[in-house]
Design brief:
With 313 residues, the protein is α/β, with parallel strands linked by helices. It is built from 12 helices and 7 strands.
Length: 313
C-alpha cells in the first residue's frame, strides 16, 4: 500500500532534513511531502536536498497547509508529522499497520501518555492540552487521551472526505472531533515525544493560541452538538427568568396588583430568549441530522467510485 508522509513546515530548516531522512531510511518506498508555508529560512531547499517532494502553500496557517495536502496527495495511507523532529519516524510509521488491516481510520500518536510532560519545557502547554482533552471528552462523550497531537496516521477515505475548515493549528482538534462525530474508527498508540532541538523555536503562543483553540471548541460544540449547546443557553436564561417572575407573581397573588413592571418585563424577555434558544437547538439538530445522512451517502458513493477507479487501473 502506498504511504505518503505529510510534513507541514514553517521555518524548520534546522530539523526538517533529519525528519525526511529518518523516514526514507526506515522505508525507502514512502514518499515524503514537505509543504513549505512561507518560510523565511532554507526549509524548502534543505527538505528537497534530503529527498522530499517540496510544495509551497502561500496561504498562511497550518490548517490551510493540511487542506492542500489532503487535496493534492494521492496515497493509500497518510502519516502526518511536524517538521520539528519531535516524533520518532519508526514509531510514526509503525502506526500504519492499524490502517492497513482496517482496524482504524485514524491512528493518534498519543504524546500525553508517553514522554510529553517530561520533555516539553514550555510553560502551560501541558495544562492547555489537559484542558482541551477534558472539554472535548466531556462535550463529545469521548475518551481520547491526546486531542492536539501532530502525529497521526490516516486512511485514504478519512483524508479525502474530511472538510478542513480551521485555518491554523486548531486543525488537529478539528480532525479529532470530525472523526468522533462521523464515527470513524479511532485508535490511540502511545508515541515518544522529544522536545525541540536547540535552535528550533515553537511557533505557538500559549495565551493567544490557547484562546483560539477554546473559541474553536465552542464553535465546534455549537455546530456538532446544537441541541446541547442551545439547551444550555436556554437553561441559563430560563433559571433567572423563573426566579425574577416569582416576585411579581407573589405580589399579584397577595395584593391583586403588579407594581414591579421592570422585573416582570425582564423575566418575560429572558423567558422568550430561553424559548427561542431551545427552538433554535431543535431546528439545528434536525438540520445536522439530515446533513449527517447526506455525508454518509456521499461517503458511500466516494468509496464505490474510488474502488471502481482503482480497479480500472
Amino acid at each position: 500500500m502506498k504511504t505518503a508522509v505529510l510534513v507541514p513546515c514553517y521555518n524548520e530548516a534546522s530539523t526538517v532534513a533529519k525528519v525526511v531522512r529518518d523516514f526514507l531510511t526506515i522505508d525507502p518506498d514512502v514518499t515524503v511531502y514537505v509543504y513549505d508555508n512561507n518560510s523565511t529560512d532554507d526549509t524548502a531547499r534543505v527538505a528537497a536536498e534530503a529527498g522530499a517532494v517540496v510544495t509551497h502553500e502561500y496561504r498562511q496557517g497550518k490548517g490551510r497547509v493540511v487542506r492542500s495536502m489532503f487535496r493534492d496527495v494521492d496515497a493509500d495511507i497518510y502519516v502526518m508529522v511536524d517538521g520539528d523532529d519531535t516524533y520518532p519516524a519508526d514509531e510514526a510509521l509503525a502506526m500504519r499497520k492499524y490502517v492497513a488491516e482496517g482496524s482504524a481510520d485514524m491512528v493518534i500518536g498519543d504524546r500525553l501518555s508517553s514522554t510529553y510532560f517530561h520533555e516539553n519545557t514550555r510553560r502551560f502547554h501541558g495544562a492547555g492540552n489537559k484542558l482541551v482533552r477534558a472539554l472535548v471528552n466531556q462535550l463529545f462523550n469521548a475518551d481520547i487521551h491526546d486531542i492536539m497531537t501532530g502525529c497521526r496516521c490516516m486512511s485514504r477515505i478519512f483524508v479525502k472526505t474530511m472538510p478542513v475548515m480551521s485555518p491554523g493549528f486548531e486543525i488537529e482538534t478539528e480532525m479529532t472531533i470530525h472523526a468522533l462525530d462521523k464515527d470513524f474508527l479511532i485508535k490511540e498508540v502511545p508515541i515518544a515525544y522529544r522536545d525541540r532541538v536547540e535552535g528550533s523555536e515553537s511557533k505557538l503562543s500559549t495565551v493567544s493560541d490557547g484562546m483560539r483553540v477554546l473559541r474553536m471548541l465552542m464553535r465546534l460544540f455549537r455546530d456538532y452538538r446544537p441541541m446541547r449547546f442551545f439547551g444550555v443557553v436556554a437553561l441559563i436564561l430560563l433559571v433567572p427568568a423563573i426566579i425574577m417572575f416569582l416576585v411579581p407573581l407573589d405580589e399579584y397573588l397577595t395584593t391583586g396588583l403588579v407594581t414591579r413592571f421592570p422585573t416582570l418585563i425582564v423575566s418575560i424577555a429572558l423567558g422568550l430568549g430561553a424559548v427561542l434558544s431551545f427552538t433554535s437547538g431543535v431546528l439545528l439538530d434536525s438540520i445536522r441530522a439530515h446533513s449527517k445522512q447526506s455525508y454518509e451517502l456521499e461517503l458511500t458513493l466516494f468509496t464505490e467510485q474510488d474502488r471502481h477507479n482503482r480497479a480500472q487501473g
